[in-house]
Design the sequence.
């Protein structure tokens, strides 16, 4: 048995788990911790479905070893909504703009958008498109996603 | 025995700890593999070469995280992520071409993990930082049990996904000489789309102009057009002594075509790559020139 004990923080909560050295953070989130909001698309860092925020930086959970999460702070899609269960503005805008169809890419897009707006509260369209270039969507054609992100940025900057 | 038996992970806190971790694994007949951001390694380990090994994560070693802009030299630790590098305005100002290369590695998500050191050690023929590092004259700082050694970056990559590290060695970081007056660099790659692809061809150019605008020093690196990224001395010769005008740039581009030995694959044919590398050299050379002139 090569299992390693890891202590990390997920969505502000201290979490301990055991993992094998070669397991990814995505494996552990979904299969050991039951946090299935983070999706597996390609498993090779191309699609962004497994996007999570690690110490304030957007990463693919499939390209981080679970053991590497030790001592770091992870935010997953489950940590984006408000603690009382209300949708985050980003999530609300994805709904309003119908920025999803099948939905498998959506958690990754929402998390990536959160990281974007934390760093660039008022991004132009080019910045949004390049930032989200690592998130693939086969349904929407992206345009509705871009509109949702623009609306979310505007709403967060000037709350009604 | 499970198929996963034999995997292990260690995160040494010092160079000495890392060297002994590696030599202990090797003494047992095991395989040690050092890791920086892991964006290439994890994919390869899960999809291609799945053999058990001990992963030696270098990110806990202060020297591999060290970024120091000194009076004459800059040291970039091997595991610093591309995102961190591109957020440093000093680096973007001094080595704009190298930072462009680092900024082209993958998506935002990849940028948060991937490092120049990893890109270099992975030694892909199409690695975007390698031609830029060659153009900048980077020196690899290598740790080993006999006190370490240094190597010019153009000698570091020796073949397709092969680097010059010996068993028991690892890359600590790279050293760059800070650019003097009227010195700058540029990196361009061609891909069929605007983001998220692997270079069909890539070219880095670094040059120095004198007060009259005459090129006094130049280095040109090319990537994705040979088994490894190459320094092209003939391209540099075509630029030195000129104003880096169209004639000089055309000659430098032609030298890149001559130096290239590309394969045909789904990204581009041999003929296409040989043509495009000349175009990239001309354009990157013009950008580096304009940057050196401050225009």
Sequence:
């Amino acid at each position: 048995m090569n299992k390693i004990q890891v202590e990390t923080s997920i969505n502000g909560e201290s979490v301990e788990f055991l993992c094998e050295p070669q397991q990814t953070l995505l494996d552990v989130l979904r299969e050991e911790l039951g946090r299935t909001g983070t999706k597996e698309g390609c498993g090779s860092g191309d699609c962004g479905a497994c996007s999570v925020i690690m110490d304030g930086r957007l990463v693919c959970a499939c390209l981080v070893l679970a053991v590497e999460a030790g001592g770091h702070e992870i935010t997953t899609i489950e940590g984006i909504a408000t603690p009382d269960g209300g949708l985050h503005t980003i999530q609300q805008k994805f709904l309003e703009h119908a920025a999803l169809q099948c939905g498998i890419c959506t958690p990754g897009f929402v998390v990536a958008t959160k990281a974007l707006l934390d760093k660039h509260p008022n991004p132009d369209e080019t910045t949004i498109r390049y930032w989200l270039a690592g998130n693939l969507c086969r349904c929407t054609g992206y345009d509705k996603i871009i509109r949702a992100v623009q609306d979310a940025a505007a709403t967060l900057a000037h709350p009604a | 025995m499970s198929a996963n038996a034999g995997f292990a992970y260690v995160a040494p806190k010092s160079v000495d700890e890392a060297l002994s971790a590696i030599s202990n694994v090797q003494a047992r007949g095991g395989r040690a593999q050092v890791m920086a951001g892991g964006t290439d390694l994890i994919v390869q380990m899960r999809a291609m070469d799945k053999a058990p090994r001990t992963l030696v994560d270098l990110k806990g070693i202060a020297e591999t995280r060290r970024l120091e802009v000194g009076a004459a030299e800059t040291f970039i630790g091997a595991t610093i992520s591309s995102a961190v590098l591109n957020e440093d305005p000093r680096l973007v100002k001094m080595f704009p071409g190298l930072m462009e290369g680092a900024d082209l590695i993958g998506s935002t998500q990849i940028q948060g993990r991937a490092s120049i050191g990893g890109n270099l050690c992975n030694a892909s023929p199409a690695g975007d930082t390698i031609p830029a590092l060659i153009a900048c004259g980077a020196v690899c700082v290598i740790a080993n049990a006999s006190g370490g050694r240094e190597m010019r970056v153009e000698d570091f990559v020796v073949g397709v996904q092969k680097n010059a590290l010996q068993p028991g060695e690892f890359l600590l970081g790279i050293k760059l000489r800070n650019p003097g007056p009227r010195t700058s660099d540029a990196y361009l790659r061609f891909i069929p789309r605007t983001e998220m692809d692997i270079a069909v061809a890539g070219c880095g150019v670094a040059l120095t102009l004198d007060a009259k605008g005459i090129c006094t020093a130049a280095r040109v690196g090319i990537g994705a057009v040979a088994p490894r990224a190459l320094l092209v001395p003939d391209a540099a010769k075509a630029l030195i002594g000129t104003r880096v005008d169209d004639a000089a740039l055309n000659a430098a581009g032609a030298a890149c075509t001559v130096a290239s030995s590309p394969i045909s694959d789904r990204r581009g044919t041999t003929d296409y790559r040989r043509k495009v590398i000349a175009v990239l050299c001309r354009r990157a050379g013009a950008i580096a020139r304009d940057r050196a002139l401050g225009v």
